[in-house]
Amino acid sequence: MIIKIVLNPKAVLHRATPLTTDKDWALEDRLFVLNVQNIDGIKRIFTERGIPYQDTTTSVVTQDPNNNVIVLTHNLNPVSEQHPAPGARNKLDQQQRRKKIGVLTSGGDASGMNACVRSVVLYGISKGCDVYAVYEGYQGLVDGGDYIRKMDWRSVTGYLSIGGTSIGTARCMAFKTREGRLLAAQNLIKNGIDSLIVCGGDGSLTGADVFRSEWSGLVSELLKADRITKEEASIFKHLTIVGLVGSIDNDMSSTDITIGAVTSLHRICEAVDSVDTTALSHSRAFVIEVMGRHCGWLALMAGIATGADFVFIPERPPSEEDWETAMCKVARRHRELGKRKTIIIVAEGALDRNLKAIKVDHIKDILCDRLGLDTRVTILGHTQRGGSPCAFDRILGTVQSVAAVDAVLASTPDKPSPMIGMNNNQVTTKPLMDAVKLTHEGAAAIESRNFDRALELRDPQFLDELKVFNVATILDDNSIYLPEHQQLTIAILHIGAPAGGMNSATRTAVRYALNRGHTVYGVANGFSGLVRGCFEKLDWMGVDGWTTCGGSLLGTNRAVPGKDVDMGMVAFQLQKYEIQALMLVGGFEAYASLVELDKVRSEYPSLCIPISLIPATVSNNVPGTDFSLGCDTSLNVIVAASDAIVQSAQSSRRRVFVIEVQGGRSGFLAVEGGLAVGACAIYIPEEGIHLPRLQGDVQFLKGLYDTDNPEKSEGRVILRTEGVSNTYTTEVISEILEDEGGARFDSRTAVLGHIQQGNTPSPLDRIRASRLAIHSIEFFEKHTCDALDHAQSICEEAPLELCTNDDSIAVIGLCGVEVHARSIKELLPGTDMKNRKAQEDWWQRDRSLVDILSGRSYFSSIE
Ligand code: ADP
């Protein structure tokens, strides 16, 4: 590698003597500023060759043999306002403008905190900030010294896959005192840090806000006591604080989900799934206590995701004074229906109506004494905190932290401290103290037995999820039966490739439908089974255990009616079995089926029934939903596989893996998977692959490997969507990289293939499936109710033609956290039928982040 800089001799200013090292060279009046990409590579070469330089993270300042000052900067615009070139302003001004961000994790650890730290560091550096990690939470801030360390691009290598927090967390009593906070302020100022990003629970965020509200008083006190200089007091007049909510409890108001909660749910579901098999073998009951402090989110979600028989949560105590009897009734009914196991999930903060704690041992005694069940207690404890973060938390931590850095850069002294949240699948910024206040209000509402208010203060879908659990599980006592004339005959079929959650959706739909008095047929093998009359009545026990099963237990098939199978035969079979509502669970073929059925409805009266589609495909390409069932399971498979591949690549030294992921013509898995695993490049069908792009990637990789520590090379992965190019196959790309990499790096491939459909559906897929199933049955009822009531009023049989309106044939999908039914007529104009996807993809907003966080603009060959 050679760096050759030739200056125009006329422009050269000869200085008699070189500048001494005690001076800031960048403050010279005349500088030669050169825009370069690989600052780290330049530093390494300068160090190797003993060339003196001064380092400002985004720039290197050196002197040429004529003692001219040369600034090499990787800021795209070296003289831009946001990232002023060194020397462009006086020192004080510069220090005020160049953000020095501290990041700390505090309170209880949560998986995904590392994703936050990584993202703050990388995105912060890419924005021209200096980023410092404060180790051991507020304790590190109070103690200062080595607890506050400047981070560089490599400091956070490998962070994404590590659970907990690698910079440590602590509960710090000193920070609760003013003297402690005074020390913390002094340490921040002495390190030049003017902004703090705190990732923690409501306690940590309360502490952060107290700190900011006191800041000017703390600065005055430090100045008065001569602990800081006048200049420092003037530079650090304001402190910027941004909060990220890291907590497994999901107990923070104003955000739908907190970082770490979903990983914790993964651990709980793994444990309950394991307990399930032993319970089944011995016909036992298990009472399982889960964490969550005053919040029942983990318990309720685990209850839905594992098909538990009963859950106890603080926000909704059992309505009966004698809850023991109510619980026993449910457990007994389920046993009488044929269940061999009983699973009760109890939140650690569970209460009865009188605020008396509901304890697992008491429940155990009741089940033993009253029902004679062989009952065991399992307290999951700290296993719930640990382990590698799931895909969701890695992505959540990453995108929220990017927003946190942006909030730091946009902050002004008059703005209240923001908290970064997630609302309706959008990253949001809300006043931190409002969120903390509402969170405390939730706890107070429980204490004052205002349970409705407590529920209101939870995330918006909590109430819906509680209903999902109740109507599908405990209200199997005829209490929600519809009048006989409104009871329907429903058919369910699976279409397309298997996807995690198809069975969960079917199980919940069947259970709820039966609780409403409906009759349900399962149709084997999609429409090709339907035309052959493969209908089988599904009963309560027939779908037992389906929640946790991957694949499609009904059997699935890609046939589309009117194309692959005869439409007349479809209509005939529906008429023969007197089907009054049709529920499809599947991917784009199911969507295409909906389109075909919609076209011919006027020709076939038996198709004039409500028809719903629950999107289920790993590709997440069905219009009308943000997430299809199976895509979260698939992301988690990609994450687990990529972690293993990265480990292999790391061990082999200097190896990049090209991993092929599924997705058809949709780049969803590559983009979101790329964020979750920290891919250094992704290839997606929406962009295609072209030679200049490949050349750029080769240069980028060369730059990365050039600046690696030769003894400690990183394992690197590239994700390529299977359908991106016929020419640049996974093998071809890998061979190009191998050839071009020369002695720097080699390349291998990994094609993940069908394992991406997953074995066991992820908790999120199971929960989404259950919600969509309940809404689907409600959709059927809504669209048949009038016709059935009318027939009843004139003493007639239910008509064959139940509904014809456009709204009655729809995709039941997730719009953020809300469930919406969107008719095929509404969706078609926004559908790209050729590429089998919606014309707009919400996840494209994350695309550029993959490149920014891979260091694409930071590293590149300087050959
Ligand atoms: P979490 O952030 O998970 O809710 P804690 O409630 O234990 O955990 O808070 C973590 C830390 O935040 C505490 O150890 C303390 O250092 C700091 N903290 C909490 N509340 C305050 C407060 N009111 N004032 C100052 N610091 C606080």
- Report the sheet with the most strands, covering strand number, pairing sense and barrel closure: 8 strands, mixed
Helix/strand/pairing category = alpha/beta
Low-confidence stretches: 78-96
What value does the Rg take, in angstroms?
A: 30 Å
CATH secondary-structure class of the largest domain? Alpha Beta
Q: Number of helical segments?
A: 26
CATH topology title of the largest domain: Rossmann fold
Distance between the termini: 5 Å
Number of strands: 29
Which compounds are bound in this model?
Answer: adenosine-5'-diphosphate
Mind telling me which CATH architecture of the largest domain this is? 3-Layer(aba) Sandwich
Strand-residue proportion: 15-25%
Oligomer: single chain
Total individual domains: 5
User: Fraction of residues in helices?
Assistant: 25-40%
- What is the global morphology? globular
Mean pLDDT: 91
Architecture blueprint of SSEs:
Blueprint: E1 32-35, H1 39-49, E2 53-55, E3 59-63, E4 69-73, H2 91-97, E5 100-105, H3 113-126, E6 130-134, H4 137-143, E7 148-151, H5 178-190, E8 195-200, H6 202-224, H7 230-235, E9 240-245, H8 261-282, E10 285-290, H9 297-306, E11 310-312, H10 323-336, E12 342-347, H11 360-371, E13 375-379, H12 391-410, E14 418-423, E15 426-431, H13 432-447, H14 451-456, H15 462-474, E16 489-495, H16 502-516, E17 519-523, H17 526-531, E18 535-537, E19 556-557, H18 567-576, E20 581-586, H19 588-599, E21 611-615, H20 631-652, E22 655-661, H21 668-677, E23 681-683, H22 691-707, E24 716-721, H23 730-741, E25 746-751, H24 763-793, E26 809-815, E27 818-823, H25 824-827, E28 831-832, E29 837-838, H26 847-854
Parallel strand pairs: 1-4, 5-6, 5-8, 8-9, 9-14, 10-12, 10-13, 11-12, 16-17, 16-19, 16-20, 20-21, 21-26, 22-24, 22-25, 23-24
Antiparallel strand pairs: 2-3, 3-4, 6-7, 14-15, 17-18, 26-27, 28-29
Helix pairs in contact: 3-12, 4-5, 5-6, 6-13, 8-9, 9-15, 9-24, 10-11, 12-21, 15-24, 16-24, 20-21, 21-26, 22-23
The protein binds adenosine-5'-diphosphate.
Adenosine-5'-diphosphate is lined by residues 106-108, 138, 171-172, 175-176, 200-204, 206-207, 210, 247.
EC number: 2.7.1.11
Active site: 249
Subunit structure: Homotetramer.
